Amino acid sequence: MTCFCLRYLDQARIRSEEAVNEARKVGSAVSLAYALTQACTVDRESRSPEELQARADALIAYGFSFDRTFGTFWRGLALAKIGQTAEGIAQLQAGVEGYRETGSVQNVSIMLAALAEAEGMPAAST
Known about the structure:
By secondary structure, this protein is mainly α. It has helices at 2-5, 9-26, 29-46, 49-62, 65-81, 85-101, 108-119. Helix 4 (49-62) runs antiparallel to helix 5 (65-81) and helix 5 (65-81) packs antiparallel against helix 6. The radius of gyration is 14 Å and the shape is globular.
């Protein structure tokens, strides 16, 4: 995450991929869920919405209830970015609600900012 915070996005993407691969290799569900959660944060800025959605789907599949809230949240942002705005906003809201239900507050401001971003996105024309 240091590379991400310093905006070295290419390096952050490489490191996050290494962390996900290492967690899969050692077979630790907790490590994999954490690595996927952090990778979604990096993917938001450095990958396509479709790639973010795929990573979020993996987090939903492999994560624990706490981690699935993040997966739902990130999946919602990806959907909003590809023009499925209404469904994306609904999933973003579900992710924020699920996160708050855990009693955690650390990431609420980041989540609400992304929700506001999605609410300003146009829906894809059909």
